[in-house]
Design goal:
By secondary structure, this protein is of the alpha/beta class. The chain is 36% helix and 23% strand. A hairpin with a 3-residue loop joins β25 and β26. α3 runs parallel beside α4, α17 packs antiparallel against α18 and α19 packs across α20. The relative contact order is 0.07.
Amino acid sequence: MSTYRLKNLLSPRSVALVGASARPGSVGRAVLENIGKAGFKGQFGLVNPRHAEISGIAAVKNLDRLDFVPELIVITAPAREVPGIIDQAGRRGSVGALIVSAGLGHGPGSLYEATIAAARKYGMRLIGPNCLGIMMPAVSLNASFAAHMPGPGNLALISQSGAIAAGMVDWAAQRGVGFSGIVSIGDQIDVDLADLLDHFAMDHKTRAILLYIEAIKDARKFMSAARAAARVKPVVVVKSGRMAQGAKAAATHTGALAGADAVYDAAFRRAGVLRVSDLRELFDCAETLGRVESPAGKRLAILTNGGGIGVLAIDRLVELDGIPASISADARKKLDAALPPTWSGANPVDIVGDADAARYATALEVLLADPDNDAVLVLNVQTAIASAIEIATTVTELVGKYREQHRRWAKPVLAAWVGADQAIIQTLSNAGIPNYPTEDDAVRGFMHLVRHREVVEELSQVPPAMPDTFVPDARAARQIVTAAIADGRQWLEPVEIKHLLEAYDIAMVPTYAATDVEQAVTCAKEIFAQGGTVVLKIMSRDITHKSDVGGVVLNLTTPDAVRAAATDILDRARKLRPEARIGGVIVQAMVVKAKARELILGLADDPIFGTVVVFGRGGTAVEIINDKALALPPLDLQLARDLIDRTRVSRLLKAYRDVPAVKHDAVAMVLVKLAQMAADIPEIREFDINPLLADETGVAAVDARVAVGPPQKKFVGSGPANFAVRAYPSQWERHLELKDGWRIFVRPLRPEDEPIIHEFLRHVTAHDLRLRFFAPMKEFTHEFIARLTQLDYARAMAFIAFDEKTSEMVGVVRLHSDSVYETGEYAILLRSDLKGRGLGWALMQLIIDYARSEGLKTISGDVLQENTVMLEMCRQLGFEVKPDPTEPDIADVRLKL
């Protein structure tokens, strides 16, 4: 598993620092002093070959001379010594190392590679190198050279920048915000963003996870971990380099639109990660998510003593898609009775500039009881009439009583005291009330809570591997692309594109390829015979945008006009682009639809995230208009609708004035089909439909370009190797017949199966649960079951079996791969009253078949020695069974695939 041994690294019982320095101002000295100041309570040892003691702490010359085996090694020694230190630590039995040192280099023969090789020999995990370190308040460990140690709390921070991590610590100290852990990951030699997301997602002390990202190495692994984590708690990210451009010049409009940051944005959206633009907004997120739960809806009531600031808050709320809460009739009646007649009478509830603490309390109490809002924002503009600190104290006392009365169902309460001094900030923070310097920050904080709730709902939807509303002729389409690649071509010809679209039931206007002028006239006559008009376009693999060379002529109605236009197009192209290969002209029926919308749809290839689907407003000025949205495939109709809705042109797809609405879901279905095409034919590098005409009758592609090439295997495992997100693997659904004709249905587990799992566990005895989980299990929390059901189908897979007659769940088998995707760890559990009927054997065979298809090399598992039935089945399936060298009660079972 990617979390393998991570708990030992982040909550070690013993630590050794290798490379501590006596020199003031050195990294080694700073780390040593920080470990001492934090008061780590476990065993601690100091290793330095040149000093017998440093800062009063005795040192030994090497790890072998320590009188204990340290779980975690912290390394600040010179880079050249790191591989040897790792090897020595591995021999002693250390679990892992934090490498603060920089300068290991990269590539074959480097210290970096030597360090990896040394760690793998012993199964050690590594954090770093070139990092600030780790700060784990829960175990009083500050193995970093940060200036401060954060207090304990419920936020986790994972940062690719040591400076950003240090800045967060300083901010948190001022705001009274604590952390469950801070990890600076540096160069990610082993432990990466995804591993730590997995760890903190299941850490019950962590309420929300904050990320600072510069670049992602393994996109599929990151997407897998981020999607799983975001289902159970908020994940917030700041990504630097937002304005950086793509690394290569794009050959199509879709390629140009799919800039590097736009793809990251699409990836974060698909993963359910909340993206913020800068550190200030990250601080605001931390302020909100670290203190309150998400509201039931997005209706916000605003209580203020200043009308202007209240209106500004409402404006920002509406702009961010929040809803200004209405005031119920009962609440209005109570407010009328308690407030001066000059109060606003609406939301924002302006209780007038002379409002004192008592008036605030009265109004807040009414709003908290009002069912017409989901949260309350309290604003205060300080005046000389009423004490701001007294109002803050009264508000915190009232909110405390409200939370105590309602506990689990309490609404979030947020605050913004304009110009507040530290005493007011401390008062609100100590009461767990998120507070901000301005109304804008506060509203953004509220909307982060709203967005997280929406994310959880969105992530419960699982797109199918193949939409069942159409059956494409994938074989015919693949033959077209394969033939072009075999011919050494990078681009499909127009007629090939038309046949490719036909294979996926995407309409395209009648299109012909003519190699000379007279053939163009012949093709045009076929269109004229059907009462149409003709458009001619230059046909050249080297001319990307036809209009740049005057290579498009419209509204041709006679053969003579076609002859003249074709001659002009060819002559002009040869004159302006003498080096270009001119293949002739494209002859198309000209579609005149005055009320049709011009759209662009396509596929682009991103070097990090693989295939990306692009949608937006089309036409020749598409890059200038820049009205586009991106999504990672696979898509279903709902995901396609969401993609469309993120563009301005989506509003034009609806009816307005005398223009009918575009046919329902016609555009969304084309997006789904394009995504499916990308899954079926990874040889498609870029696909550009521009324009796609859409109106009330449907859609039709007018022009398209398709770039092809040998498939690139970006991601390991089965499924489309060009997709960073694995589709729901419906191809693994099975109907099986077991002993005595017992028929079962087996399918991959889905996130929404949590209630089924709870019911299933009621039919498993305490003894069988102990054999499965190695400990007595009295209850199963939502968080625990979420860990079992939130699969990504990339590193983790589980199959659940149902009795076909009763539809009851009868068993589950799961497999989770390690971080390098070589070994998978299995687990299996059956209903206790149905054992002995061949179900366990069938599920084990299925998971073995799945592991082979994924390219895993080994399946392993831990089995209690008393579980003799499981051990015997493993032997019959070919597993090697050995006693665990460190746990005599456990057998290690392993099958080489």
